[in-house]
Write a structure and sequence with these properties.
This is Transmembrane protein. This protein is mostly helical. Helices cover 58% and strands 6% of the residues. It is built from twelve helices and five strands. Strand 3 and strand 4 form a beta hairpin.
Length: 402
């Protein structure tokens, strides 16, 4: 009896060690209870309705209960500083994170101060780097600009060789230039076949004033249209181009008017750069006074009043365009101006030296108020005249200096 008890006890202990969930009696029967129970359980599952996509075994595996994760026990020595050990049931220790808020120490303050100093040093280095790059770019731009100015000066100097050659051929030069000027003024002068009523000095007769103003403004419009048209490169006179280019240089200028000389310094060895507006002003003054107006006054058309109106209009448009230029100091002592003199139904330009308190190009013409009344008489024509004068100035610059 004792031997049977000892044998059953040993078997039960060994069974418990295999971690089974069933309690075994001290005496094991010959029938395998585990296999019977397992077969019954499988038969029960197979009788249940299963889905098309899930087999009984897969359903069994998916419905298994997950094993509970065993809690991890940590000793107080192994626990880090950022966590807090809390006490739970059954004397189990779990780890729970906790945000630690600590006051900045002196070491932290020193580190923050050093970081700020390093940031400031880095910013200053970056600023020095950017400033160096910007300064190099400015120096490069200045050098490029100087090289361009030198190339323009060199270009003008090469043109002067052709200028001196053509200026020696006076007969050829004057004939071709006069032919170009006659083509410019022809339509304007032939539009008026008789003497016009002087509506500026005698504004009382309304009928004659209207007719005279209409013919005068039409003649002015024709003149500006031809100036804008014939100043294009393909229609311009080559000899006139060289003459006008010579007037840009201080050493070759024929005369110096007060209005223009106070707004430009001309080209010379000490001044190799002039703005585009200043160059345009010199060219327009030279071609209008030296060529166009001289040709108008010497024409066979004997209407003195119309000639004076055309000259007054050109001077008004010239001063209106270039009066905005900034005045400069010049060292030119021999300033001059032109004065209109009427002789035997003809106008003539005389050059007078040192005009006092007078910035006009030509003295003795009609006032600006008289020209405004004429232009406002037909505002559509006034707009076209203004546009054609702008075109004429642009074409003249591109033809000669571009």
């Amino acid at each position: 009896m004792n031997s049977q008890f000892q044998q059953g006890r040993s078997q039960s202990i060994k069974f418990i060690q295999t971690q089974t969930v069933y309690e075994q009696p001290f005496f094991t029967p010959n029938i395998d209870i585990l296999s019977v129970s397992e077969n019954l359980y499988l038969e029960k599952i197979s009788k249940q309705a299963t889905s098309r996509d899930q087999s009984p075994r897969k359903w069994q595996e998916s419905h298994k209960k997950p094993l509970a994760q065993q809690p991890k026990f940590v000793t107080p020595q192994e626990a880090p500083k950022e966590v807090k050990i809390i006490q739970v049931n059954n004397d189990e220790k779990k780890i729970q994170t906790k945000e630690v808020i600590s006051k900045p120490t002196t070491e932290h303050k020193q580190l923050i101060g050093r970081a700020k100093v390093l940031l400031l040093q880095q910013r200053t280095l970056n600023m020095k780097k950017y400033f160096k790059i910007a300064s190099l770019a400015i120096i490069a731009a200045i050098r490029i600009k100087k090289s361009l100015n030198y190339s323009l000066w060199k270009k003008y100097q090469t043109q002067l060789k052709n200028i001196t050659f053509f200026l020696k051929l006076e007969l050829v030069q004057t004939e071709r230039i006069n032919a170009w000027c006659k083509a410019v003024c022809a339509k304007s002068l032939t539009s008026v076949n008789q003497q016009l009523h002087n509506f500026i000095e005698y504004p009382n007769d309304k009928e004659q004033v209207d007719q005279s103003m209409m013919k005068s403004i039409n003649s002015c419009q024709f003149l500006l249209e031809n100036l804008a048209y014939f100043s294009q490169p393909k229609y311009f006179c080559e000899e006139l181009k060289y003459y006008l280019l010579s007037q840009v240089f201080l050493d070759h200028k024929a005369y110096f008017s007060k209005f223009v000389s106070n707004r430009t310094l001309y080209l010379h060895t000490r001044n190799r750069q002039i703005k585009q507006e200043e160059l345009t002003m010199i060219l327009v003054e030279s071609i209008l006074i030296d060529q166009v107006l001289v040709n108008i006054f010497d024409s066979n058309q004997k209407c003195v009043f119309l000639h004076k109106v055309l000259a007054s209009l050109l001077q008004y448009l010239f001063i209106k365009k270039f009066d905005k230029l900034k005045q400069k100091r010049n060292n030119i002592q021999k300033l001059s101006a032109h004065q209109v003199i009427s002789t035997e139904n003809r106008l003539k330009l005389n050059q007078i030296p040192n005009p006092e308190n007078n910035d006009l190009l030509i003295i003795g013409l009609y006032k600006d108020e008289d020209m405004l009344t004429l232009l406002n008489y037909k505002k559509t024509a006034y707009k076209k005249i203004d546009q054609n004068f702008e075109r004429f100035c642009c074409n003249l610059y591109t033809t000669i200096l571009a």
